[in-house]
């Protein structure tokens, strides 16, 4: 009986830890009914999963909803937050409004909103804070007319810093929500 407990406890602990992690697997195929170019796929042999996804997305890129006035904001795919905050800044609101306009004009576009925090605080607290940040962005976009079906809010907490430093400059970069187009991104040419 003790041998069974010794086996089950690590398995349960691992399962509990993994449930806190975002476990999304992006698709790397294109539905020809949703692709304005009519292509059904792109050769992604030898590419990493992220590179393959980006290659697929470029096939269905759209200029619909892209204006000269909002190109710079659409190019920005990250919004930042103050310490322990989910409040959006005025600059971030302009960025999100541009993405909302694009998403409303392109019903086939899909976006993952990934929430991140700095390294301070417990893992559990940061997972929840990352989720609140992603949900704040999602809420703004939905309020601006974007269909909730186009959005996915995910938290990575402090697990995926973009700056490995341990100072305020690093923490400021890591407190963010990334806007990741998974289908039909803006064509900014």
Overall pLDDT score? 79
| Order of strands in the sheet with most strands | 1-4-2-3
Largest sheet: 4 strands, mixed
Residue windows where pLDDT falls under 50 for at least 5 positions: 9-43
How would you classify the helix and strand content by structural class?
alpha+beta
Rounded to an integer in angstroms, the radius of gyration calculated over CA atoms is 19 Å
Percent strand equals 5-15%
CATH homologous superfamily (4th level) name of the domain at 66-189: OmpA-like domain
| Oligomeric description of these chains | single chain
Helicity, in percent? 40-55%
The count of β-strands is 4
CATH class membership of the domain at 66-189: Alpha Beta
CATH topology of the domain at 66-189: 60s Ribosomal Protein L30, Chain: A
Please trace the helix and strand order, writing H or E for each element: HHHEHEHEHE
CATH architecture of the domain at 66-189: 2-Layer Sandwich
Cα separation of the termini: 65 Å
How many helices? The count is 6
What sort of overall outline do the alpha carbons produce when their principal axes are compared?
Answer: elongated
């Amino acid at each position: 009986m003790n041998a069974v407990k010794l086996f089950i406890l690590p398995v349960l602990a691992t399962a509990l830890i993994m449930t806190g992690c975002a476990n999304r697997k992006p698709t790397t195929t294109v539905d020809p009914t949703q692709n304005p170019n009519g292509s059904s796929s792109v050769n992604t042999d030898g590419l990493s999963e992220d590179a393959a996804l980006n290659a697929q997305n470029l096939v269905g890129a759209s200029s619909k909803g892209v204006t000269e006035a909002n190109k710079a904001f659409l190019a920005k795919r990250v919004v930042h937050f103050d310490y322990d905050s989910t409040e959006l800044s005025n600059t971030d609101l302009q960025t999100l409004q541009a993405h909302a306009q694009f998403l409303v004009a392109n019903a086939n576009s899909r976006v993952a909103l990934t929430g991140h925090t700095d390294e301070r605080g417990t893992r559990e607290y940061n997972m929840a804070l990352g989720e609140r940040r992603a949900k704040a962005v999602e809420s703004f976009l939905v309020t601006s007319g974007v269909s909730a079906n186009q959005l996915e809010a995910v938290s990575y907490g402090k697990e995926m810093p973009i700056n490995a430093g341990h100072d305020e400059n690093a923490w400021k970069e890591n407190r963010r929500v990334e806007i990741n187009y998974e289908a039909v991104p803006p064509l900014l040419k």
